[in-house]
Amino acid sequence: MSNAAVPVGTPLRRFAGWAGLGFALLVLIQNGVLLMGVPLNDAPMDEIQSFYTDSASRITAATALVPINVVLLLTFVAGVTSWARERSSASLDWGRLGLGGAVLMASTFLLTTVLQIALVVLIDVGTDSSIIELIWIVHAAAFALNMTGLAVTLVGLAQVSRVSGLGPNWLNSVALAGALCLLIAAVFAKQTTDGSPVLFVGLAGFATWLVWVPVNSIILIRRQAH
Predict the structure, then answer these.
(1) What is the CA radius of gyration of the chain?
(2) Is the pTM of this model over 0.70?
(3) With CB atoms 3.0 to 4.6 Å apart as the test, which of 106, 148, 154, 213 could cross-link to 179 if both were Cys?
(4) Residues near 168 by beta carbon (within 8 Å), at least 6 away in sequence
(5) Which secondary-structure segment (H or E) carries 93?
(6) Above pLDDT 70, what percent of the chain?
């Protein structure tokens, strides 16, 4: 029997690239299809209630994908940091930062999902509009603050990619700019909740995340194949 050492976490790294692609695809389906037409934060209550009434089945489907997204996200981040750690010890601290950010982001994703489910259920049973408005405000604030975790994740992973040579440096630089956009939106969470256009600054940062993840997932898959 061979005593050759097998790198720890190899199966995880082999699946990480596919997990990243799956995560990006599901997020696009959630936000681009199932939640299309979601009201802006400062929309009137009538519009919000109408959307949740008319789109209850789509919103329910979107929330059902969140647990899968969380598993894929954490698998991707853990796999990327594991792959990079074997190639550069300098990536260790950045990897910890990225993984910590991903855990924070996943936790806040779950919170916003709980609030989405609550809105669907409470609107369906005819709950008083003042309660619906309160939950909507909390949901909007949690969504804005969730950009903090995403910013931390993006900074950590972009630096992991840079020091380990995983992805192109131009994309890592774009990711850092995207992280700054996300952090700005999170800092102005109160204004974002009130309907400020600063929300779109955060969404620009979110777009860089949805580019960074699949590009580096494909690269990781190719590296594992050789």
Answers:
(1) 19
(2) yes
(3) 154
(4) 215
(5) helix 91-124
(6) 95
Nearest to 95 by CA among 113, 118, 79, 117: 79
Residue with tokens 């329910």: 60
- pLDDT, tens only, 53-75: 999 999 999 999 999 999 999 99
Q: Quick one: pLDDT at residue 226?
A: 64
140 CB-near residues (< 8 Å, 6+ apart): 41, 192, 193
Inter-residue contact 141 to 193 (CB < 8 Å): yes
Question: Which of 146, 165, 125 has the alpha carbon at shortest distance from 209?
Answer: 146
Which is nearest to 217 in space by CA: 76, 68, 65, 98? 76
